[in-house]
Design goal:
Layout (H helix, E strand, L loop, with lengths): L5 E5 L2 H11 L3 E5 L14 H9 L2 E4 L5 H9 L5 E3 L1 H4 L12 H18 L4 H25 L7 E4 L5 H6 L3 E4 L11 H14 L3 E5 L5 H10 L2 E5 L13 H16 L3
Parallel strand pairs: 1-2, 1-3, 3-4, 5-6, 5-7, 7-8
Helix pairs in contact: 1-5, 1-6, 5-6, 6-10, 8-9
Length: 262
């Protein structure tokens, strides 16, 4: 503990957001992924590995960061909490937090885990998780309503990071680069996506913050589609003052415009 607060490490931003909301003043949260960085590309230095070994709790999602997975596996005695089961991952895309209700389930689990480490704080942790669930439920209702009547249901993105969002809100995702955020699509793959855009009448292709937009822009240029930016919330930009809820609402506005929603 640090100054009677639990020292908690989160492997990337959405989990940092959850731990901060659920833990409140009883936790000191450190995000292992620096602002503006991709958790997939994270490398941990010696000081980071010391923090992993000494933390009261490490909250992470197995598979999003090989460096964190390796550190947890080799740090004997470290308390860790893998949220994979709570997230109910059902597909290769691991971006479960873009479905707000899945993130709410993770928050409930974090509250339970923190309560085990700090029993006197259990009531506060559970109350904080309930308040967060209320916020996430309201956000989900905004997405359901905002995306209920859209001219286009095909969601063409630069890489396949929006599967859970698409599934939750009745859309179909088609990606330019597949699952890998670093993947370079072949000429054949680009041609296939371009054909899809033309045939399905797609008018907007979505690029992402933190990643190159070159391939998606090439398809847009070839097909006459416009380009808009969605934030998959793997990490906030350096100096950002927004949080998960505000960024998701910005995403909703972008989607409503791009999908022709009324």
């Amino acid at each position: 503990m640090q100054n009677d607060r639990l020292a908690v490490l989160a492997s990337f931003y959405p989990l940092e957001f959850v731990v901060e909301r659920v833990g409140g003043n009883s936790v000191e949260v450190t995000n292992l992924t620096p602002p503006g960085a991709e958790p997939h590309d994270l490398e941990l230095g010696a000081n980071d590995l010391v923090e992993v070994r000494e933390a009261d709790l490490v909250v992470y999602l197995r598979g999003i960061s090989a460096a964190v997975d390796d550190a947890v596996n080799t740090a004997a005695g470290t308390r860790w909490f893998d949220v994979t089961a709570l997230a109910r991952l059902a597909e290769e895309d691991i971006h479960f937090w873009l479905d707000p209700l899945r993130l709410a389930d993770v928050a409930d689990g974090v509250a339970q885990r923190l309560a085990e480490l700090d029993p006197p704080g259990a009531g506060a942790f559970r109350a904080n998780a309930a308040a967060l669930r209320a916020d996430l439920t309201a956000l989900d209702a905004e997405f359901m309503s905002g995306l209920a009547s859209c001219a286009r249901r095909d969601l063409v993105t630069s890489h396949a990071a929006f599967g859970y969002l698409a599934t939750r809100y009745g859309m179909r995702q088609e990606s330019v680069s597949g699952l890998s955020p670093e993947g370079e699509p072949t000429a054949a793959a680009l041609a296939k996506v371009a054909d899809f855009v033309r045939v399905e009448g797609v008018t907007t292709i979505y690029t992402e913050t933190l990643l190159s937009s070159a391939a998606a822009r090439a398809v847009a240029s070839e097909t006459g589609a416009r380009v808009a930016v969605l934030d998959p919330l793997e990490g906030l930009a350096e100096g950002a003052v927004a949080d998960y809820l505000t960024v998701m609402r910005t995403n909703l506005g972008v989607l409503r415009a791009g999908q022709g929603c009324t």
